[in-house]
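Summary of Year 1 activities. Much of the first year was spent building the evaluation harness for sequence design. The harness presents a backbone, in tokenized form, and records the residue chosen at every position. We chose the following record to illustrate the format because it has been used consistently in internal testing since the harness was completed.
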């Protein structure tokens, strides 16, 4: 025997006759079955030989040495196994008798497999329905699927749900196929050992392998997010980040920082910036900043003047997603306001600009190229001042430049 050769394993593992025929075709081509894996089947190169292969099922226990010895005496050599499927081979010239000569009796060997597959189909089906319900709430409850996609909250879970859904589908097919096989055996109809694999079957199996690899790669997404996502206290001085600062909006030399925010792990969450990464927006910033102007009161006399600003910044991987993200951000931050109060305005240097104003609170949504910025501001600065600052910052992320967290520091 020579070196090993690996073939994609057909994912329809319950198709016993097709597997047996395929192994025989491989042996005739000089590839002899060596081992069954979850995704691949390994063969060893050797001389072409006419072989017969048979698959036996034992779901409760491992086939005993006595039974293996009995099979060997009948001309059947044990080759390999996968869970409850045991594969035996025999040269054609030996003319070995069948492992099971009575089809009706053989049907009882797969009764428990039939029940097990039915149970698997039920539980994976229920799991799929529950995950679809949960993910539907995440993606569509607020009507902001693009915002959810950009933030990257549920990408990995959605891919995993798709995999579980496909598993439920294959489990259901397996259950029906084994039940049909069992019924045929009980009626005295033997397994069709001349059935062959269609090219579409092998393409579907290859798809499952590729999809499984994608599942594995998707598991990297939350790890990268965990590693790259950081939160730090905003320095009082200006830093080279594409975020709108409170001092730039207020333009008041008497402005000081309001340091009465929540402190945790050395971070002032009232004056912080968070860098986040996602596959559809590799550069994301979220900031909060609060200030005070000594001696100044709110215009309605409600207390000392304490302006604040909250910003969200995105540099998108796909610029055409900007309009949809703007629409979803408006929905996300709309709260109880009337939709008509969110006014779309023309701006010569911005692709899109939406403004909401109410007393001392303003919300501004802007996009240019692959850059999107949202600003929510409490204070008495006018809207044009905020838009001017957004215009300056969005230029840093609207083109092909990539701003990394490390470079910014």
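For this record, the design step produced the sequence shown next.
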């Amino acid at each position: 025997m020579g070196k090993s050769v690996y073939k994609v394993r057909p994912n329809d593992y319950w198709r016993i006759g097709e597997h047996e025929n395929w192994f025989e075709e491989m042996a005739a081509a000089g590839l002899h079955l060596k081992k069954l894996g979850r995704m691949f089947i390994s063969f060893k190169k050797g001389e072409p030989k006419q072989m017969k292969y048979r698959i036996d099922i034992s779901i409760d226990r491992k086939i005993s040495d006595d039974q293996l010895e009995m099979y060997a005496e009948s001309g059947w050599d044990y080759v390999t196994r996968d869970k409850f499927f045991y594969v035996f081979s025999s040269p054609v010239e030996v003319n070995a008798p069948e492992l099971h000569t009575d089809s009706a009796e053989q049907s009882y060997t797969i009764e428990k497999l039939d029940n097990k597959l039915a149970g698997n189909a039920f539980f994976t089906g229920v799991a799929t329905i529950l995950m679809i319900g949960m993910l539907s709430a995440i993606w569509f409850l607020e009507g902001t699927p693009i915002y959810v996609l950009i933030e990257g909250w549920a990408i990995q879970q959605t891919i995993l749900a798709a995999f579980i859904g496909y598993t439920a589908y294959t489990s259901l097919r397996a259950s029906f196929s084994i039940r049909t096989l069992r019924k045929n055996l009980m009626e005295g109809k033997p397994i069709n050992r001349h059935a062959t694999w269609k090219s579409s079957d092998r393409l579907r199996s290859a798809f499952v392998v590729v999809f499984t690899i994608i599942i594995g790669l998707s598991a990297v997404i939350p790890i990268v997010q965990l590693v790259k996502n950081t939160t730090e206290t905003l320095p009082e001085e200006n830093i080279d980040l594409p975020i709108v600062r409170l001092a730039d909006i207020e333009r008041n030399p008497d402005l000081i920082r309001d340091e009465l925010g929540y402190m945790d792990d050395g971070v002032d969450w009232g004056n912080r910036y968070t860098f986040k990464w996602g596959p559809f927006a590799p550069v994301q910033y979220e900031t909060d900043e609060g200030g005070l102007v000594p001696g100044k009161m709110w215009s309605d006399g409600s207390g000392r003047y304490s302006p604040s600003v909250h910003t969200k910044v995105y540099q998108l991987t796909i610029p055409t997603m900007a309009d949809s993200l703007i629409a979803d951000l408006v929905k996300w931050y709309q709260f109880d306001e009337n939709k008509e109060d969110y006014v779309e305005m023309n701006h010569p240097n911005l692709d899109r600009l939406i403004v909401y104003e109410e007393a001392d609170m303003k919300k501004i949504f802007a996009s240019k190229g692959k850059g999107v910025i949202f600003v929510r501001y409490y204070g008495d600065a006018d809207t044009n001042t905020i838009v001017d600052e957004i215009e300056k910052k969005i230029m840093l992320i609207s083109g092909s430049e990539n701003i990394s967290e490390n470079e910014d520091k």
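The longest strand covers residues 281-292. Quantitative recovery figures across the full test set are reported in Table 2.
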